[in-house]
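Hi V.,

You were right to ask for the full record rather than a summary. Here it is.
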Amino acid sequence: MDAKTGFFYLFSVVLLYATFRVITARNPVHAVLHLMLAFSQAAGVWLLLKAEFLAIVLVLVYLGAVMVLFMFVVMMLDINVSTVRQGFWKHFPLAAAMGALIAFEMAAVLMGGFRGMDEPKAVAEMLNAAGDVIPYSNTLALGRLMYTQYLYPVEIAAVILLVAMVSAIALTLRKRTDSKAISPSIQLRVRSQDRVRLLKMGAIQKPLAEVVAEPRAEEKKS
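Predicted structure:
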């Protein structure tokens, strides 16, 4: 058994264990952590199949973004496990039947669709823009195909994703009424008259000299 086969069995065993723990873990946080482990092992299998682009996309998108979001959501919701598990055995027969049906369909596709197929042989070398011979790269070939033959579909998909992101931000954005933040434009347009205002007010208390002079005047009158 060579090293490639050994890594394949290692990734496969850890992947099966992680997927089993995802559906059997009692703690939702532990289930999410095992799902992240499963994605990392699947990325390793993609690398063994010489699909480097799919492996790095799986790591960046799912492990780097989606699963972190799942972790934050699960920890913020503080799910009560006891209420979630109510009625588990009541729905277990239907869930087991659906799982067995899906497993049978996947086994039928894998056993009948890939039987007798050899590993695809890629070309050994490619030519760059200057005509120099460079080693073959699966990611480089995929990038050239996406940005040459499928350039317009890629740009349309990028625009749709950008519009979806901006729309999601616009729909969920709420202006806070308790915020004391001041707009920088208002701060730049401020004047000294707006900051300090001088008011002329009448005296509400007599000067000390007048207060002392009043008793003396009353004494002279008496």
